[in-house]
Amino acid sequence: MRLPAPRIAPLAEADLDPAAQAALAVLPEQARGFAIFRTMARATDALAAFLGWGDYVLSRRNSLTPRQRELAILRVGFLCAAGYEWAQHRVIGLQSGISAEEIEAIKVGPEAPCWDPLDAAILAASDQLVRDHFIANDTWTALAPLGERGRMDLVFTVGQYTQVSMLLNSFGVQLDPGLTLDPDLDRR
Asked: Is the pTM above the cut of 0.90?
């Protein structure tokens, strides 16, 4: 975590106006109380648009498999030192078929010896997009098994979660109950 307390506090249930309640209503019930969404509820138009795009990125409409998607999201979270994103998506990653050992290897990056060529290419592309906003030709070629649509969805996913990392870090969104801060991401 970059900040020990929120710069922009999440709204309590009693403070949600009708527009914020409507925007949050599209979420699964357990997610409606997440600090990220309660913080963004202070800008309901932005929250509604954010949830629409986020729904695509996290849905089956995204051509990446859940495992591929979570590899990219976790790598972005680590590169951006977004403790909240890492903690939330560590849980999702484990549910998506990423092992605990692989989650630790995501911190090392595409060079970790456990990755098959496509996993390594997904991690390399995530690194390149975060650092240079461009996928190098050799990495693009290595991503060929994803096809054109998969390559596009990878860029969409990395872009979405780079933005998520920026808002989490800058707004000071704190961990939700039950989540644990990875010591490698404690930057306070």
From this structure: yes
Count the domains in the chain: 1
The answer to whether residue 43 sits within a structural domain is no
pLDDT, tens digit, for every residue of 1-58?
A: 889 999 999 999 999 999 999 999 999 999 999 999 999 999 999 999 999 999 999 9
Cα–Cα distance measured from residue 127 to residue 23, given in angstroms and rounded to the nearest whole number: 32
Please say whether the beta carbons of 146 and 140 come within 8 A. no
**Is the distance from CB of 71 to CB of 98 less than 8 angstroms?**
yes
Measured CA to CA, the distance from residue 58 to residue 72 in angstroms comes to 12
Q: Are 175 and 48 in contact (CB under 8 A)?
A: no
Does residue 47 belong to any structural domain of this protein? no
Q: What whole-number distance in Å separates Cα of residue 6 and Cα of residue 20?
A: 19
For the chain, give percent helix, strand, coil, nearest 5: 65, 0, 35
Q: Is residue 12 part of a domain?
A: no
- Of 79, 71, 76, 75, give the one whose Cα is nearest residue 116: 71
Residue 187 has pLDDT above 80, yes or no: no
